[in-house]
Amino acid sequence: MSAARVRRDPRDRSTMRRAAPQEAAKTAPVRQIADDSPLVAVLIDGGAGPLTPLDVEALTLGRRLAVSAGHGLLAIILSTDAPSGLAGAGVDRVWAPPSQDSDALSHQITALWHDLELRRIVAVDGGEAAEVLRRIAAVTEGQIRTNVAAIDTSGCLCLEDGATRERQRDDAPLLIAAPGRFRPQAGPASGEVSGDMSTGAALPLSPPRSSVPDAAQAAAPVELGIERGDPASLPLSEADVVLSAGAGVSDWALLHQVAAALGAAVGGSRVVCDAGLLPRGRQVGISGTVIAPRCYIAFGISGASQHLQGIEGARKVVAVNADPHAPMIARADLAVVTDTGAVLRALLDRLGDTP
């Protein structure tokens, strides 16, 4: 008779363990959490070896939030190997999802979020952890803030327009920090956190600003000119104008011609990216890329909540859709209710087929 397989509930508290001083040791005791202290969770990529710089920043932000509220700090490791240095980073609890499958991760962590009533879940942009947190926001339609540069009692300060503009936003339970904004006060470049991280002393919200040199010491400015980037290769988060398409667009060659004539970057809804019509890096929304362009033009996009949250920072929104009741039409500053193909052809005739 074959041995029966036991499937562990991802919400089982016994799967969590306290962060031991020698976290990397295989003999670290596994103990059930006895207290019900509120927890702030940090998603880290993990892996064998020391903490990565992104993981250090995520833990620094999480620890600051936990200490200020009197909560515990839970590290959720998206890897089969736990990195060293977790206890030194002030981690109180450690949890690794039973399955490392990308689709299962968001559901397992969502279940843990509701079961333990986690106060916050945070990550730093640039790794798998941030992508998982975006998927959690899409699955739960939970409030999320991205490109977070600072946070205090009044809310979040978020970067927009390719990190050239800052905007004050309301707080949210899900936070994705901009990389380089939540470094510990001191520490070697290897990613290890130095100093006594277990005393509860607050860490700075952002790295200190560099001092301005005296005029006598400053070098004379050099005029480098302006080099215009190729909109087709420009990351969506840095584009000034984004032309985005959804299921209501059928002529993709025409769409790309219009985008080239406008000098716009091409984006798309989750539906078209799932269908393989655009690469995943071109998906707009909190489950893809959160953008804040000067102008966002949406062709044939109905406007799911995760998509609308991803364009909250856009200064002007133009929507073209055959459905007058589409949420994107209500969101737009300028709405055109008609066939998307007709508008694309008219635009190309007006603009010409060259940038």
From TrEMBL:
InterPro entries: DHS-like_NAD/FAD-binding_dom, ETF_a/FixB, ETF_asu_C. Residues 1-31, 181-212 are annotated as: Disordered. This is Electron transfer flavoprotein subunit alpha. Gene3D superfamilies: TPP-binding domain (3.40.50.1220). Residues 1-15 have a biased composition (Basic and acidic residues). It comes from the Bacteria. It holds the Pfam family ETF_alpha. GO terms for biological process: fatty acid beta-oxidation using acyl-CoA dehydrogenase. It comes from Flavimaricola marinus. Residues 236-312 form the Electron transfer flavoprotein alpha subunit C-terminal domain. One of its GO terms (molecular function) is electron transfer activity. SUPFAM superfamilies: Adenine nucleotide alpha hydrolases-like, DHS-like NAD/FAD-binding domain.
